[in-house]
Every structure is written in C-alpha cells, then in structure tokens.
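Sample intake sheet
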Amino acid sequence: MMRATHIAGLLMGVSWLLAPCHGQAQSDLPPAKILRSLQFVQDSVVMGDHSARDMQKFLLATFDTTLRTSNMSVFSDVKNADAALIYIMSGGNPATLNYLVAKDVQGYFDSRVVNVLQKYLSGRGGMVDKIVADLIPEYRNNRMGPYLMLIAGNIAFSKDPAGSLAFFDDARLSAPGTIIEEAALRRSIMATLQLKQPEKGLLYVRKYALRFLHSPYASQFADLFVSFAIDNYGPVTTEDIGDIAELMDAERAQEIYLRIARQASLQGRMELAKFAADRANALTDETGDTAREPLSKLYSGLTSVSGRDVVNASDSLATIPADELSPRDLALRDAAKAVAEQIMRPPASPSIQAEGGGSPVAANAAQGSSAAAAGVASGTSVGDKTEAEPAAKAPQEAAVHTDDSAPLKTFFDKNRARLNEIDSMLKQEGG
C-alpha cells in the first residue's frame, strides 16, 4: 500500500512536469532523475505491485521522448549519459541508442559500453564477452555495474553456465530487492539446471520464492521450479518441494503440484507424482476451486493404475467427465484406463481338453504346453535353464501343443500391440 501511494504521488509529480511535444509526453527532468523514478517503479512491479505496470510503460515512453528531444549538451553530465545507457538496458528502445550515438560527436557516451549493447541487443553478444567482463571491475561501484553484470551472465550462459552464475551472483548482490536481483535469480536457476547442481539450485529457488513470487515474471519461475523438482528428484526431496510450496498461496501451490504430478506421471516417477497429486487434492478445500478437481482425480488415478489399488483407480478415472478435461488430459485418461483394463482382464482360457475326454493326464499335458507357449510368446524361458526336447513326440502331444499355443500367442500379440499404442501415445504426450 505504501508503494502504491508513493507511485500515485510520483505519477502526479511527474505529470505536471510533462509538456506536449508532437503528441508525445516529454519531461523537463534530466535523464538521471527520470531514471530514479523508472527504477523505483520497475522494482515495485517485480515486488508484486502490478498497478505500477502502467506507470512503467508511461515512464519508458517519456524517457525515450526526452532522450530524443534533449540537447546533446545535457549528456556532458556523466550521470545523464549513464542514465541513457541504463534506460536501454532497462527495456528501452534500442533504436534510441543508435540515434544518440549518431549525434554524439563530442564522445559523451562510453564507446565500449555502446559497442557491448549494440552487439548484445542484435544477438551477437558472444563477440563482446571479454569486453563486458573487462568493464565490470571499472563499473562495479557505478549504477551501470549490476546491469553490465547481468548482461555478462546472459552472454556467458550458453558457453559457460558456471561462469554465468558468478556474474548473476554479483548482479543480485549488488542490487538487492530490485528487478536486477529478480532477473538474476531466475537465470541462476536455469544455470543450475544446466549444471545439474540441485543443492545450489535449491538455494536460488528458495530465495526467489521468498522475495519475488508476485512478480509478473513468476510464471517463468513456476516453469523452472516444476522442471527443477522433476529433473532433480532424489537429491531434491518431497520435503524440499513441500517447503517451497508452503511459501506460496494455496492456489499457486496447487497449480504447481498439479503440474509436477502430470509431468512426473509422464516420466514414470510415480512416487513423486503421487506425492504431488495428494498435496494438490489436500489443497482443494482451501482454494475452493472445484474446476481443478478433475485434474487432481486424473493424476491420482494415473499414479494408482500400476499399484495394488488398480480397481479403485480405474473406477475413479471412469467417473471423470470427458468435457472437463483438455484434449491432452483426455488422452492421458484414456491411456490410463486402457492400461488398467489390461491389468484387470483375466488371461484367456485356452481349451485344455484333448479329444475323447478330459483326463487328468491330458489336462496336465495341455497345461505344460500352454506354459511353454506363453514362454515363447513373451520371448523368455521358464525357469533358469531350458532342457532339450525329445527328438520324437507322440502325434497326440504335438497336436495338443499346437492347438493350445495358438490362442495364447494370439492373446499376447494382440495385447502387446495395444500396449505399444498406449506407450506411443504417452511418448507423444510427454514430448
């Protein structure tokens, strides 16, 4: 509330300084003072004050017009020159940088920083990785320092994730509680995923959850957290996941749990999927969101299909209305139901009676040949060794073997094909 009040006052204070300029807003304030207002508003946005987003757009537009219409002599003050470059690094118009550089005959702007920004913004950051790294010690105590550290980390990320982490750490520690720290933490989580360092990644995840859960960029954090929890399950325990989720509001936590349950089910991590599905179900009363109940039921059913409670899981899946699921979740439900049906279906009963009566001897012979047929159909042998068959068989025994093996082979071939179709469906869904 204090931030919102401050921003409202800031808006009124800036408004009276604005003058029409060809239909655009222009401020009489010098760039260095506009930058202070812009930074405050941007930091407020990532801390959760979404009402400040309109003010952020307004200030960016005002800043851009001011830079383009100001006399170049204003940049003789190094604070204003630096402010113009920070504006570019804060989401400003890259074309304005080229405009200012073209007019900078006096050399007010640091040509090295300009070169870094031009290459970086045009997707050629790899060409200036050493230049920006060399600039950081010089600008460490300057307002541009944290921005250059963040850019250096972004450039290094693809080639050297470990090196990028050092830059991100410097950036967030140099600018705590700001949009710089928020961005650095998200990128640090990405780097630890690449490096497969779950212990370090968990620290960054926890810091982000404590400070920036209400940032407009928190949806990207949610994606990263789901991937982090699943890819690092084992070193990252269900207790760790639960501790992070407790820092969230109930609705956000339930959404995270449902996403973890879904992805873990597709990847066969059933223990994690069951934990997440159970936690999502437990939050239903707290959130009061019955629209997510079909998803909770679906993922709970997925985790139980391969367990002892397959009958109840199948019944539960059957009660989920098709029109309450998305097409991809409907495909998951149908695949799970098909698997459950295969598990519960009794094996086919081949005829075990030989012609002329059902004597115990004939039944035993048929049973033995059925077991052998099952072994052939499944590609395995029964027992630890296979004995050679006698060279000569009674015609009647051979006939029984042939008659009994055919139904079993058909049963295995038919159901193996169906299971292959289900596996294919799940692989496509997982992709």
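Comment: The chain is about 70% helix and 0% strand. Confidence is low (pLDDT under 50) at residues 7-23, 352-405.
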